[in-house]
C-alpha cells in the first residue's frame, strides 16, 4: 500500500509554506519550522498597523464617495463626524468594512510573514467546520434571545421606538456586521492569539494578551465596560483553544453584534450604541454570565461532535482511508 506524502515543512525565506506538525495546539501553530520569536513579536505590530492603515484607507474612500453622492449639502467635516458616530448608515457601512479588513490581514500575515498555510488560522484542521459553525450560530441566537428577553428583569426597559432611516442600517447590520465580527475574531482570536501564543509554551499568554488588546482597541470606556470586553476576549479565547478553531467565537461575536445593533435601532439609536463608553456593574456581570453560558454550551457541543483540538496526523488519516 503506497504511503501518503508527509506534510510539507519549510524554513522561513525558502519560498515554501509550512504546515504545523501533528498534535500541535491552536495557540502553537506558528511555533513550527519557520518560527522565530522576533517574527511573532514584530508580526503583532505589523498586523495591527496594516489593519489600521488598510482599513482607514478603505473607510476614507467610502465616506468620501458617500459625501459626494448623497450628502454634499453638508460640510464634509460635519458629515464625517456624524458618519463616524453612526448617524448615517454610510458611516456604519464604512466602519464595518474597515474592521472587515482584519480577515485579509490575518491571512496575509500567516501566509507571507510566517510562511505558514493561512488556512490554519481558521482551525487546527485547516478548514471551516461548517456544521459546527451553523450549530453555534443557532445556539448563540437562542442564548442571546433569552438574554434580551430578560432585560426588564435586570432593571432595563425595552420600548418599540425605531430610529428614522433604520431600514438602511438594518441592511448593513444583516449583510456587513457578520463580516466585521468575524474579522475581529480572525485578527484577535486568530492571528494575534497564535502570534502571541507562539512566544511561550503555555496557551494562557496568547489568550490573555489578545483579549487585552481586543478590549483596549475599543477606545474610551469605563472600567465595567472594559472588563466586559476583556472578559469576552478571555472566554472566547478559551473557547478557541477548547474547540480547536474560530467557529464558536465567530458565532458568538456575530450574534452579539447583530442583536446589539438591531436592539439599539428599534429602541433608541444606532449612534447611542456606537458612542457607548460606560455601563454599570450589573450590566457587566450579566454580559459575562451570558458569555460563559454560551461558551460552556459550545464547548459541550464540540465535545459531542468529536471535534479535534490539535492538528491531526494527515498521513495516518490518509492511510486509514486507503
From TrEMBL:
Catalytic EC class: hydrolase
One protein family per Pfam: Rce1-like
CAAX prenyl protease 2/Lysostaphin resistance protein A-like domain: residues covered: 168-259
Residue ranges crossing the lipid bilayer per the database entry: 41-66, 93-111, 132-153, 165-183, 195-217, 223-241, 248-268, 288-307
Any one GO molecular-function label of the UniProt entry: hydrolase activity
Entry EC no(s): 3.4.-.-
InterPro entries from the UniProt entry: CAAX_protease, Rce1/LyrA-like_dom
Keywords recorded for this protein, A-Z: Hydrolase, Membrane, Transmembrane, Transmembrane helix
Name by which UniProt lists this protein: CPBP family intramembrane glutamic endopeptidase
